[in-house]
Amino acid sequence: MNTDIPEVMSTPSQNQHAETIIRNHVVMSMGAGVIPIMLVDIVAVTALQVDMVRQLCKVYEIDFEETRGKALITSITASTIARAGARSLVKALPGIGWMIGGVTVSLFAGASTYGLGKAFQKHLAAGGTLFNLDVSALKQSYRDLFEKGKDIVKDWKKNEEGSPSDEMVPDVNATDATDRMRELADWREKGILTEEEFQRLKKALLDQLPV
């Protein structure tokens, strides 16, 4: 399948801006993947993906309808997110569970966000909207780009300063929780997380702390 982005309906500056948005959200998704709480990481990644598509629509001057956008994203990424969720459960294992699960979910999350972003970019750059897309075709494009994304995020992970590291210490303590709380609060301020999502993630994070 040809995954090149058509430039007939879009400008080079729009495509360049879209590439930056996708890369930034891939990196943030990789960071969310190492949140040391099973399944909370998946919620955060989904919120980031919705925000990414919202920003891509803005770049290509396409209306983003929140409910429809979330439904489409969930439909397209469902199988991949389910696989990532299963790997997230590994974090519950004592000892090295957090390390193994965190690194695996991080790479899955990054590849999924890359595939989703590139698939939507291709559609929007060609003049598509959220209302005229072929869901089946977009799903296939996403699956192809997800596989490509696995290799790409591995390279980005090596080069991106501050990206998740295989050597991160699997310790859920007060310091780690404070850092994660600040990150979630920052996402809320940027509109990536809703207030309800922020409160749910905050509660889950605090519940993991030792008494």
Structural class: mainly alpha
Tell me, rounded to a whole number, the average pLDDT. 74
Number of helices: 7
The dominant shape is globular
Computed Rg: 17 Å
**Main sheet specs:** none
Strand-residue proportion? under 5%
Give the fraction of residues assigned to helices.
55-70%
Order of helices and strands: HHHHHHH
- Give the total of domains: 1
Per DSSP E runs of 2 or more residues, the count of β-strands stands at 0
Note the gap between the termini: 53 Å
Unreliable parts: 1-8, 85-102, 161-173
User: Quaternary status of these chains?
Assistant: single chain
Task: Walk me through the structure.
The protein is mostly helical and 211 residues long. The protein contains seven helices and no strands. The chain has one domain (12-198). Helices cover 70% and strands 0% of the residues. Helix 1 (12-32) packs antiparallel against helix 2 (40-59) and helix 4 packs across helix 5 (135-159). The chain is globular. The model is unreliable at 1-8, 85-102 and 161-173 (pLDDT under 50).
